[in-house]
Amino acid sequence: MIINNKVYKQRRKQLAKTLGDGIVIIRNSSDQIRSNDTTYPFRSNSYFHYFSGFPESDAVIVINCKPFKTWIFSKTKDKTKEIWDGFIYGPAEAAKQFLFDQGLDLKHFNDSVSDLLAKNSKVYLLQEDLSLRGLVSKILNHLSKNKRADAFLKNEIISLNSFVDRMRSIKSIDELKVIRHAANISSRAHQFVMANIHSDSYEYQVEARLRYFFGAHGARNEAYSSIVASGKNACTLHYIENQSRLNKSDLILIDAGCEYEGYASDITRTFPIGGKFSEPQKDLYSVVLEAQKAAISQVKKNNSFNDPHTAAIKVLAQGLRDFKILKNSVNAIIEKKEYKKFYMHRTSHWMGLDVHDVGDYFDPKGKPVRLMNGQILTIEPGLYFPDDRSVPKVFRNIGIRIEDDVLVNNNQAEVLTSSCPKEIDELESIIGKG
Ligand code: GLY
Ligand code: MN
Ligand code: MN
């Protein structure tokens, strides 16, 4: 493990210091039923993970900011249950290993929290955890009825998100180590797939190859469902069916990244299945690549979050005009947003524990935020051509996206996924050579 349990404890301390007083309650996700008594693979809630590192479902952490005291509520140690479902820490061991002041059984959660709520006027919850908010409201109501406090009137339920999102969006040295590691495995997985594409006949076989590579190199999970989109499927932005047969004359768009120690990576590469770009494919690819490089060059501390997007659009608009797909001037194409027919998504999103990570894109006045050192964003322009008479025949049904993960670092952005090839000659020298 790169991130150890002291780091999680330090984060809890930092949060308490930021908030000053009140209590924080963060609950982990529950297991999700797949059918009958089988469940989907469990993944912790990212906020819960960020402050605990504790891997069990349903557990809850509570932080009393002043004086600083922390609790973990977890499942009862149950030897019989462990025979079926595996190891359970139990509250005492959970507290010891994960450095909480006290471990308590989940069944005592309501009573313990009730005592804390009676003494605190502020309670911070994740805004999306509506059922916890319901439970806390119920406890407050109960307290006020029983005159243990005029709790319902006095207590304030405050959204925790913005406080934590600020912490999560600037990555620490340890987090960068983990994300670099994830990015590196993903970059090599893409190269592995490129080299062996000639052995695959269906998109799902390519997907299997990605999953194999991730797992074989220590990253058991994907950060999101891999998009393996050959031919016209690449024009469906969130294509995850991955069922089509591969055709050697088509391009394939692969958007895939592994998760490592809870952190995401997110890479897209588009390349010819047969190994050589046709002239029209090469023309379009070159424009997207140029747009991507122009966007990356705008990743600088204090630049606006929008600057990379603006740079990408300029290049794409020029390309669409050069190919006579759009007739207006570049300025008009941009002003009238005509490019949106072929480039309909944004160039970037934050990345971290979640592939689409937390953090604002706009300030309260609606202005794009400024980039800060330690933030990671993706740069992922694309062009997608529908089967439409307005598009020259040779371009129809082609979808191209190129995506890298970029760390803001003064004027010298670091492309964390730079080892994944994207130049035309590099790609052609790798494809099918495995
Ligand atoms: N893979 C999801 C995205 O690129 O946003
Ligand atoms: Mn992305
Ligand atoms: Mn992606």
Automatic annotation (TrEMBL):
SUPFAM superfamilies xrefs: Creatinase/aminopeptidase (SSF55920), Creatinase/prolidase N-terminal domain (SSF53092)
Xref: Pfam families: AMP_N, Peptidase_M24
InterPro entries for the chain: Aminopep_P_N, Creatin/AminoP/Spt16_N, Creatinase/aminopeptidase-like, Pept_M24, X-Pro_dipept-like
Species name: beta proteobacterium KB13
Entry EC number(s): 3.4.11.9
Sequence similarity: Belongs to the peptidase M24B family.
Keywords: Aminopeptidase, Hydrolase, Manganese, Metal-binding, Metalloprotease, Protease
GO MF annotation: an example: manganese ion binding
Catalysis performed (reactions): Release of any N-terminal amino acid, including proline, that is linked to proline, even from a dipeptide or tripeptide
GO annotation, cellular component aspect: cytosol
GO aspect biological process, one term: proteolysis
Obligatory cofactor(s): Mn(2+)
All residue ranges annotated as the Aminopeptidase P N-terminal domain in the record: 3-134
The keyword Metal-binding is annotated on this UniProt entry: yes
Protein name: Xaa-Pro aminopeptidase
Keyword rRNA-binding: no
